[in-house]
Amino acid sequence: MESEFRRGAREGLRDFLPISVGLLPWAMVTGIAMRSIGLSEIEALGMNLLVYAGTAQLGALPLIAVGAPLWLIVLTALALNLRFVIFSAAIAPVFHDSSFARRLASSYLLVDGVFAVGAEKLLQAEDSHWRWGYYIAPSAFNWCVWQVFTALGIFGAEFMPRDWSLEFMVTIALMVMVLPMVRTRPMLVAALAGGLGAVLLRGLPLRLGVVAGIAVGIAAGFAAEHWQQRGARS
Fold first, then answer.
1. Which pLDDT belongs to residue 123?
2. Percent of the chain with pLDDT over 70
3. Are 146 and 22 a contacting pair, CB within 8 Å?
4. pLDDT at 206
5. Range 7-35 burial, b when 16+ CB lie within 10 A, else e
6. Among 23, 36, 19, 11, which Cα is nearest to 156's?
7. Which residues of 196-231 are buried (b: 16+ CB within 10 A; e: fewer)?
């Protein structure tokens, strides 16, 4: 009989594979972007391993390129990754009986796509072996795909045709991963307010428009959830 771990791993990969295609252009563009601002191959590979967060990497690179203060680079990366605090808190019950090493590895490997497609199933599952297989298999697969295709972008940056519209494909890839998470009215309000805020505030100095947009989105999401709960109680 197939073990629960293997069954969970197979189901996790099956659920995650449809959206994993979006990783390919996103990873390649991230690799190209790191090289385009002057990072060496080793520096780019090191950043990819250490940060492992495409949105934060792409958000921090323009600041690095213009010589922005270190505190602003760190603040921007942290702001862009705030969603992972929410994701982690949401799925924390899944790992309540796991070792510290397993929880540490899980936190490093947590990505938007795995959370979007698997959080609900993980929280409903009772077998801990199935839960671990369902989480770790697509997470490890995502890590491998990201590292390989980012490396292709890093080492192939000089040979990449300039007329390839990879930036547009990255936007589509991000939308594909975000849309499954916009399931409730507060999430939709947060996404719309954050995106609109970032666009309207893009002229702020030191490229603080993105950080400000994130703050606007978070505030709007909390306000929408508060009003929704008040309406449900009345």
1. 92
2. 87
3. no
4. 67
5. bbbebbbebbeebbebbbbbbbbbbbbbb
6. 36
7. ebbeebeeeeebbbbbbbbbbbbebbeebbeeeeee
pTM assigned to the model: 0.75
Residues of the chain with pLDDT under 50: 1
Tokens representing 182 are 């916009």
Nearest to 10 by CA among 129, 120, 138, 101: 138
